[in-house]
Sequence to fold (159 residues):
Amino acid sequence: MELSVREMKKNDIDLVVDYFIHADSEFLASMGADKSKLPDRGVWIKKLNHEFEKPCIDKTFYYIIWLLDDQPIGHSNINTIAFGHTATMHLHLWKNDIRKKGLGVTFLKKTIPFYFKNFQLEKLICEPYAMNVPPNRVLAKVGFEFIKKYETTPGWINF
Fold:
């Protein structure tokens, strides 16, 4: 079993969008997302295609694809990017049968250097839903420091 990561390619955009679009409401709620806030699939794909073309300094979103034996099985992305300063990271394994197997630690260790190098970051923030325990555990294992628990709406698809 080989774990690797790479920058998103154009043909990965459908996979990322479909992960959310085809997820059931209960699963999305478990990570703090609201299915009713998801954009139309076509609009979302168009938005990510447009973003894909931008240089890093102008990006609003940036994605790293997670691979198991060269097959895409998840992604991490950043948004709220202040180039040269900060960004906010998100983590997603696409299939239930591969979650909770300890893959997240390896994926994050391979992913995080892309963010710091390509966006010249000083700080990387990750704010998973407090009730979603697995990503919070993974973050602690890779050295993230828990700073505070508070109510927020971290993104446009969140409640």
